[in-house]
Amino acid sequence: MERLQKVIANSGYCSRRKAEDLISAGKVKVNGTVISELGFKVDGNDQIMVNNEILSREEKEYIILNKPRGVVTTTRDDKNRKTVLDLIKTNKRLYPVGRLDYDTTGALLLTNDGELTNLLIHPRNKVDKVYIAKVRGFFDKESSLKMSRGVIIDGVKTAKCFVKLKKFDKKSNSSLVEVVIHEGRNHQVKKMFNAVGFDVLKLKREMFAFLDVNGLKSGEYRYLSIKEVKQLYGLVK
Asked: Sign of the CA dihedral 93, 97, 102, 104?
């Protein structure tokens, strides 16, 4: 027996938090009866309906995508821009785990496993994201220390993180900087650089947890192995 909101999230229909909202709003039925109790438990024989549609319990899929620039990290876009789901051939209802900006490239995990998604994006689990940023100017040691200790963005101080200058190109007057964070706030890396006086010219997420996009061209993806999925669960449980 499992909690109803967990089963809905695991089906890939929505996040667990959204499932709880749907239950509280009386939008969920179990065997024809409206359920509004968040602690309600179901088993594999129960019929669950969400918004009067029978919930299908899909087989789980886990994909790592090398996100290109100019693609939005949403399931649909009201401006008709290309989304990350347009790059993937599947009949499953997948969702991105966190977001990458429109012009940010690199490692993006997509899945219909709502439970794992919630665990990976929850701040308490401190899942590392590794970025390489190209910034204008020489990224000095003082700026590196400020960023690593935390800076104020949107009125809140960021958590301590790892920051390292990888390379300075005198000809283009630009620096390559590695940043490792475990938060996932809106436009966080760009805002962190802005807070210490640097503009980000390019940004790529090199790794999500231990997953990278080595061997994947821009726009390409691959399915995770069972071992990799178990490793992800091992990070957050």
From this structure: negative
Residues 44-60: tens digit of each pLDDT: 789 999 999 998 777 88
Do 149 and 109 have their domain in common? Answer: no
As for how many domains the chain has, the answer is 3
C-alpha span between 15 and 11 (Å, rounded): 10
Question: Which residues are the active-site residues?
Answer: 101
CATH (domain of 196): 3.30.70.1560
Please name which of 166, 167, 175 lies closest in space to residue 196, comparing C-alpha atoms.
175
In DSSP notation, 78-99 reads TT---BGGGG---SS--EESS-
Distance CA 28, CA 24 (A): 9
User: 177 and 164 in contact (C-beta within 8 Å)?
Assistant: yes
Half-sphere exposure of 128 (CA within 13 A, CB side): 16
Instruction: Indicate whether 30 and 66 sit together in one domain.
Output: no
Does the pTM surpass 0.90? The reply is no
- Among candidates 115, 117, 83, which has minimal Cα distance to 98? 117
Residue with tokens 């802005």: 194
Residue 193 domain boundaries: 128-208
Within 13 A of 68's CA, how many CA atoms are on the CB side? 15
3-state secondary structure of 67: strand
pLDDT, tens digit, for every residue of 60-81?
899 999 999 999 998 888 888 9
Give the 3-state secondary structure of 195-232.
HCCCCEEEEEEEEECCEECCCCCCCCEEECCHHHHHHH
